[in-house]
Amino acid sequence: MPIRSSSARWEGNLVEGSGTVKTGKGGLQGAYSFKSRFEEGEGTNPEELIAAAHAGCFSMAFSKGLADAGFTPTSVETVAKVHLDKTDAGFGVSRIDLETVGDVPGIDDAKFQELAQGAKENCPISRLLSPGAEISLVAKLS
Predict the structure, then answer these.
(1) Measuring CA to CA, which residue among 16, 36, 101, 4 is closest to residue 62?
(2) What is the chain's pLDDT, residue by residue, as a tens digit (142 residues)?
(3) Which of 29, 49, 98, 132 is least enclosed by beta carbons within 10 angstroms?
(4) Residues 89, 58 share a domain
(5) Do 17 and 85 reside in the same domain of the chain?
(6) Which Pfam families match (predicted)?
(7) Half-sphere exposure (CA, 13 Å, Cβ side) for 43?
(8) CB within 8 A of 125, min separation 6: which ones?
(9) Is the backbone of residue 118 left (phi > 0), alpha (psi -120 to 50) or beta?
(10) What is this structure's pTM?
């Protein structure tokens, strides 16, 4: 399997500095700063990138699980919300909320929920993040 990489460059101090992040093949590139991470400033931040990775991984895993069960999804749309919290030990990701909507002809809600839970538990990014963060899931059929 290929090894994936991304890079980041930061210039200046924590509060007044700024940086850029870039995925290895250049598909995504963005500016980030203290304000984009800890306030509501312009740009991206590491937690948004984790959310994008988790949403993408979950959507693919869910689509595969649906297809393996005999249901071809028209679409699976997922939003991941990463919670960055400050504790006495410092900042940390405590929770990720996955919200997914699937357009899946011929499936009932019970089977849809079962396969969504399976994807949540087994997508590689969920497996990576679940020891350190609680992961919730709300799955809806469109």
Answers:
(1) 101
(2) 899 999 999 999 999 999 999 999 889 999 999 999 999 999 999 999 999 999 999 999 999 999 999 999 999 999 999 999 988 889 999 999 999 999 999 999 999 999 999 999 999 999 999 999 999 999 999 9
(3) 132
(4) yes
(5) no
(6) OsmC (PF02566)
(7) 18
(8) 53, 54, 57, 58
(9) alpha
(10) 0.94
> CB under 8 Å to 119, separation ≥6 — which residues?
58, 61, 62, 64, 65, 126
Is residue 87 assigned to a domain? yes
**β-bridge partners, 90:** 87
The beta-strand segments (E) located in 29-89 are: 29-33, 75-87
Instruction: Give the pairing type, strands 18-23 and 134-141.
Output: unpaired
Residue 1: inside a domain, yes or no?
Answer: no
